[in-house]
Design brief:
- The complex is a heterodimer.
- Chain A contains eleven helices and nine strands.
- The relative contact order of chain A is 0.10.
- Helices cover 39% and strands 11% of the residues of chain B.
- Chain B contains eleven helices and eight strands.
- In chain B, a hairpin with a 7-residue loop joins β2 and β3.
- In chain B, α4 crosses α6 and α9 packs antiparallel against α10.
- The longest helix of chain B has 29 residues.
- In chain B, 40% of the residues are buried.
- Classes of the chains: A alpha+beta, B alpha+beta.
- Chains A and B meet through α7, β9, α8, α9 and α11 of A and α7, α8 and α11 of B.
């Protein structure tokens, strides 16, 4: 049994933590939070690119580091812990994974080296309005290689240079690569729950696009990309949730009420124990997702769903109970608690809400049960 | 990251498999009890234990001189995994070999060890642990059972009092018992541990009729039970420290709750009519619950894999292994209740010939309250995580520096 990261991977994680503690303290995160004009931390983005993280899982032939997905998982955990205000998930978990999964040789050769070099910022454009986007609600249309439609919210849509767009062609859903630097694509920044990860409304008017994979494969491809992203997002969620527990614990040990530290009351002790239990369940599910992702196992859809559900639940619970443990001070803008509360919402929604994943998981369990 | 054995582990697993294939029973005798206290097929259990002991598999991690194999914890885990594939009889030796006998081995003299370890490991003699009392389960240090020096100057002790929730007392030969020896000292400083002969006329075992209908546990009454001073384990009034050694050995022995799980629920939901005449599994509320239970069960499974990995590397497992029973016992109760409610009015039927899965959910429902209490209540386990894992302060103790006899006792 070797259900753990290797010493090298743990070393990388440790280095990533040190790097982010120096380069991404919450004071830096707050600059993006407080300044409306600032969509992300450009200096951090550059620095992360120089570390090679953007191309960690990209093969060496495309100028990546050619490491595995497990290396990406440990980086993701640290980015989540630091609430890093950069378009890493959009670019690496969605765009790069999508290209590696279904891109043509030409698409790979063009985009992957640019992603690794930090020259491309990605975005995933699926949602068009309130509720779940399905084949019957999908409006964006491609005809003769031109895309028309409106997508919102698109996380990092205001800073991205390339988007993966879900649209219909001849009535069948497909995934398309759109160049957002082309004037046919316009964007408008949106106010979001987590201003450290901006989102935009993207409007395409006869925008030239290239298809990823085959016509009609849109939702299948999207699910496969989401599975990959879900595992990596689950590590960000684990990182954030563990940080919340640390914050809550530290505060519980220094704050006095009724003559003793609040961490000595069972109401607080049991709350923190509950956070710990959820965090460990999320971590174990994320590890299994990491194994499935790294080995491209047939279990990936089920493992990714479980990782996403557990990760979303853990981070949500830890972020809200961290505020509760802090009491009134936790509700102030100056305390960092709300950074995690906000990010936990962003991470839970960006690749589809937990209830969508629960439905997906149960459908798969049902099929497995029926086949057995 | 993978789920593969190391070459050494694979070789050990192969050796275990071959041995089990040649020696393990092929047919189960007696029904397994979800709480694991059944005495069903005691003779079969003893025979199987003797076979394992003869081959060194009874206590793999114990030194060879004491009948073990001098093996490591991962070998113990591997044997357990492989053994679980066979319909082996119940294991009434776990408490004795997991907690009582290690305590005897730590604190008793050579002659006592030589007398007891061999028969225990071979399953010839069964041990029970007598800690909980009517006045305190979670609060073990509140024990009131008295041990007093015999007035005849022999140095013997006379024990009077009552223990409760004693697993397997009805078929045990020996037990370790924690007694109050100095009521004038604060509670933790006035207790002493002894081993006792459960067949002594001064010991009376009465089964407890559980709310689930079964009787796996017992009350044990001591009436002028006379024990020799040589039966004392550890120093006089130092029993609390001795009990910590006993409970420390509990750590690797603790399992999770069993009972009908998510896949039984799914199976049942596919076959039960739901709200609109379709199958109950189409009910979105049930689907979301099912997803949550699956994710929890997988989380526990892979937490065990993480623990095994640490053992495999020769490391001490992290504290994550402590989350098991908090999750599994509550899930057992919630899942069973949802499964019963899914049956609508029919759910009230608790007859294995009529209820789905031979009444497995009804059985789970009725034993789940015990699972949330046995081996550490939900609340005590949360305290343990908060204090030992997270390093939060212990609860304020109003009883720490007060003579035991002066503590308020309630009813």
């Amino acid at each position: 049994m070797n259900f753990d990261f290797s010493d090298d991977q743990k070393f990388l994680k440790n280095e990533a933590r040190k790097f982010l503690e120096a380069q991404c303290p919450t004071s830096r995160v707050r600059k993006v939070l407080d300044e409306d004009a600032k969509s992300f931390d450009e200096d951090l983005w550059k620095a992360v690119g120089e570390q090679g993280w953007l191309g960690a899982a990209i093969p060496e032939e495309y100028n990546g580091l050619g490491l595995g997905r497990l290396e990406l998982c440990v980086i993701a955990e640290e980015l989540g812990r630091a609430v890093a205000p950069i378009p890493f998930a959009s670019t690496v978990y969605f765009l790069a994974e999508g290209i590696m999964l279904a891109g043509s040789d030409e698409q790979k050769a063009y985009l992957l080296p640019r992603i690794a070099a930090g020259e491309v910022i990605g975005a995933m454009a699926v949602s068009e309005g309130p509720g779940v986007t399905t084949a019957s609600t999908l409006q964006a249309t491609v005809e003769g290689g031109k895309l028309n439609g409106v997508k919102l919210p698109v996380t990092d849509g205001d800073i991205a240079t390339v988007a993966l767009v879900l649209a219909k062609e001849n009535g069948k859903p497909g995934l398309y690569l759109a160049d957002l630097t082309d004037p046919s694509a316009t964007c408008e920044a949106l106010k979001t729950l987590d201003p450290t990860r901006d989102a935009a409304r993207l409007t395409f008017k006869d925008a030239p696009v290239r298809r990823l994979g085959e016509i009609g494969q849109g939702f299948e491809l999207l699910e496969q990309i989401n599975d990959r992203a879900a595992v990596l997002l689950a590590f960000e969620q684990c990182g954030g949730a563990d940080r919340c527990l640390e914050m809550a614990k530290a505060y519980a040990l220094e704050r006095y009420a009724f003559g003793r530290v609040i961490g000595s009351y069972q109401a607080i002790k049991h709350k923190l124990a509950d956070i710990y239990v959820k965090n460990e369940l999320a971590r174990s599910n994320a590890y299994y997702g990491a194994w499935a992702l790294n080995t491209d196992a047939p279990e990936l859809p089920v493992a990714a769903s479980a990782a996403r559900i557990a990760g979303s639940e853990a981070y949500w619970f830890a972020s809200k109970e961290n505020i509760q443990t802090h009491g009134g001070i936790g509700f102030t803008w100056e305390m960092d608690c709300h950074l995690h509360y906000r990010r936990s919402r962003q991470l839970s929604l960006v690749a589809g809400a937990p209830r969508v994943w629960k439905e997906r998981l149960v459908s798969q369990l049902e099929r497995r049960n029926a086949a057995a | 990251m993978d789920f593969k054995d190391t070459p050494e582990e694979a070789a050990y697993r192969q050796q275990v498999r071959e041995w089990l294939a040649a020696n393990a029973p092929k047919k189960r005798e007696g029904e397994p009890d979800p709480l694991g206290e059944s005495s069903d097929g005691l003779a079969a259990s003893k025979a199987w234990q003797a076979k394992k002991a003869a081959a060194g598999y009874a206590c793999i991690t114990w030194p060879k001189e004491w009948g073990g194999q001098g093996g490591n914890p991962i070998q113990q885990v591997i044997f357990g995994q492989e053994e679980s594939a066979f319909p082996t009889p119940g294991n009434p030796f776990q408490i004795g070999l997991g907690m009582c006998v290690p305590t005897v081995m730590t604190f008793a003299d050579e002659d006592t060890k030589k007398r007891f370890v061999g028969p225990a490991i071979r399953g010839e003699e069964i041990w029970c642990q007598l800690f909980s009392e009517p006045s305190g389960g979670s609060d073990v240090a509140g024990a009131r059972t008295r041990a007093e020096r015999a007035p005849d100057g022999s140095g013997d002790w006379i024990i009077n009092g009552q223990k409760v929730w004693t697993t397997g007392a009805q078929f045990s030969d020996f037990g370790i018992v924690i007694c109050r020896t100095n009521p004038d000292a604060p509670k933790h400083k006035g207790m002493t541990m002894f081993w006792i002969d459960m067949k002594d006329p001064g010991v009376e075992v009465r089964p407890i009729h559980q709310m689930s209908g079964g009787s796996g546990f017992n009350e044990v009454f001591f009436t002028d039970l006379r024990v020799k001073d040589s039966q004392r384990l550890g120093a006089v009034d130092d029993g609390w420290r001795v009990s910590l050694v006993t409970l420390m050995n509990e750590r690797l022995a603790v399992g999770g709750a069993s009972g009908a799980g998510w896949s039984a629920f799914l199976e049942s939901a596919r076959q039960t009519p739901g709200l609109d005449g379709g199958a109950a599994i189409k009910d979105q509320a049930l689907r979301e619950k099912l997803a949550d239970w699956y994710v929890q069960a997988e989380g526990l499974k892979h937490t065990r894999n993480r623990t095994m990995t640490a053992l495999s590397k020769g490391e001490t497992p992290g504290p994550e292994s402590s989350i098991g029973k908090i999750i599994s016992a509550v899930q057992m109760q919630e899942l069973a209740n949802s499964a019963v409610e899914m049956l609508d009015q029919y759910g009230i039927i608790n007859d294995p010939s009529l209820a789905p899965l031979r009444g497995a959910f009804q059985a789970s429902l009725m034993s789940a309250p015990g699972m949330r209490i046995a081996g550490g209540t939900d609340e005590i386990l949360r305290n343990i995580i908060a204090e030992r894992v997270l390093g939060l302060p212990g609860d304020i103790r109003v009883d720490k520096d007060v003579a035991f006899k002066d503590l308020p006792t309630g009813r």
